[in-house]
Amino acid sequence: MPQELPGFYYDKEKNRYFPLKGPIPGSSRSSSSSNNAKKPSTNNTQESNFFRRTGVRISQLLQGRELNGNVITSRKGKCDFVEEFLKIQASQPVVWKYRSTEKIADSAMDQIHIDIHTAEGQTEANVLITGGVNGSLSLFEVGKAGEHNHGVECIPDRMWPVIEEKRAESGKDPGCIWRPPGASLHMSSNISCIKMCGKHSPIQRALITTLGSETSGGSVYILNLVEPVDFDSSSAIGEMMRRTADFNCTIWTADCSYNSNRAVIGTNVGAALVNLETGMTSWVCRSKSDVLSQQLDPSGNIVLCGLRNGAILTVDVREKQERVSDRFIRHRIPYSSLGRQGPNSSKQWFEVKGNIYPSRTILMPSSVCSLVSLQSYDQCFLASSMDGLIKLYDQRMTKRGAVQSYEGHVNSHTRLQLGVDQSERFVMAGGEDCSLRLWSIKSGKLLFEEKISDSVLSTVCWKRSERLVKTLNEGNIYDECLSRQNHSWGTWFGSQEGLFYISWS
C-alpha cells in the first residue's frame, strides 16, 4: 500500500501521485483518499508550514517531477526533486523522550555496532555510549538485543508533535533501549568526551576522557569493544576499560585519527597527541586560552582547535612534536588581521606556540564550542560559538570569512554540540532556550525549530548505519528515496532531563 502524503493522493491505475486540488481528469481516487479530501484542514496547515520553511510545496515537487523528471524548475531556479523532498521531510521530525535516563547523557555520547553474547549465542547489537556531567558512564543496547540481559528498560514517550497533529503512520515507536546490569560505571570526574576510534575501522573501541577535578587533572581511557561483550557480568564495562594517559590539566575535548592509533586532546593549556597503544604524549600546540573544541580533518594530518578566546587554529600534527614547549615556534596573531578588536585596548594580539598556520586562523566573536569537518568537502567545516553563531568555513578562503551562516541558534555560555547527518545535508543543534533546530547545510535555511525539552539539549549523535549511506543519484525514484532515508535517519540528543531520539518518517 503506497504511503499517504499530505496534499496529494496515489492513483493505482496511473501508478503515481496527484495533488488533491485539481486532479487530472479521468483519474480515480481510492476511498481513503476521498475521505482525506473531505478533511483538508490539517493537511493544508501542514502544507502551508512546509511552504514557509522550504519555499516549495510538496504538490509542486510532484507535479514538476512528473513533467520534467528529477530536475524541477521554479521561480527560484532549478532544483533537484530528491534534495527538495528531503528538506521537506527533515522539517517534520517526531521527537521521543526515554524514561529513566536523567543526567546520563548531558556531557557526551556516541554510537557503535558491537558483538555481544546472549543465551542464543553471539549477535550484533547497536550500542549507545553515554557520559554524564556527574561522571556516570553507561552503555545502552538499542533494539531487541537488550531483552536478553534483564537490564533496566527505558521506554520512549512521544513528545512532539501531539498525535492529533500528525498522521498515525509517522509516529512509529522507535522501541525501548536497555541498560544491562554490567553496563554502568562511575568515573573519577565529569565525562568530557566520548569518540569512536576509527569510525570505519574494523577495530572497535571508544576514546573516553574525563575533565579532571580540583585535586587532579583529566585522564584518557580506551573502552575496548573488539571482543564480544558479555553484559551478564556485573563488571563488564570495567573489564573493558583501560587508562591510557593522565594529564595534570583540564581535558575539555578530544578526537581520534582515522587509523585509530592516536588521539588529539584539548586542554586548558593547549593541544596534545596521545598514542593510544603506548600512552606516549607529545604537545602540538600551547596556548593560554583553553582548547574547548577540536576536529581532525579526514586525512588525520591537520587538527582544528577552537579556543575560548574565539580563535580557530589550524595545527599540523605531521611534524615532529616536542615534549618541551619552549622549543615551539611562537606566533603572535594580531586581532586586527582577523577583523576583530582585542578584548581591551592594550591587548591587540594573542600568542600561541606550535606548528600553526597563522594565515588560516579564524576568529569568532565568542568561545568556540563545537567544530565539525565535512567528509564530502575536506576543506570545509562547521563552527559554533557561545554567542549563538553557527558558520560554515572553507579553509581555502578564510580571509573572506564564512561561506554560509545559520540563523536562529541561541547560546550565551554553554558548550553545545553540532550534529551532522551522514549525507552531510543537515546540521542540528539544541539551544539554551531548550529548542531543537535543524538547518540545510547548503542553503543555510532553518527547516525546523521547536521547544521539545525543559532543559538544554547539549549533546548530539546522529544514528550511524552499519554501512555508509550513499548519496542518492537522479535515477532513484520517490519510493527508494523515502525508504532509504527512513532507515538511516535518526538522531540522539542528551540533556539533564534525559535522552531524546529524533526520527523521520
From TrEMBL:
InterPro entries the UniProt entry points to: CUL4-DDB1_E3_ligase_receptor, WD40/YVTN_repeat-like_dom_sf, WD40_repeat_dom_sf, WD40_rpt
Chain positions of WD repeats: 406-449
Pfam families the UniProt entry points to: Beta-prop_DCAF4 (PF23761)
Record keywords: Repeat, WD repeat
UniProt KW Repeat keyword: yes
Region (Disordered): 16-50
Compositional bias of kind Polar residues: 35-50
UniProt protein name: DDB1- and CUL4-associated factor 4 isoform X1
Organism this protein belongs to: Populus euphratica
Gene name of the encoded protein: LOC105113663
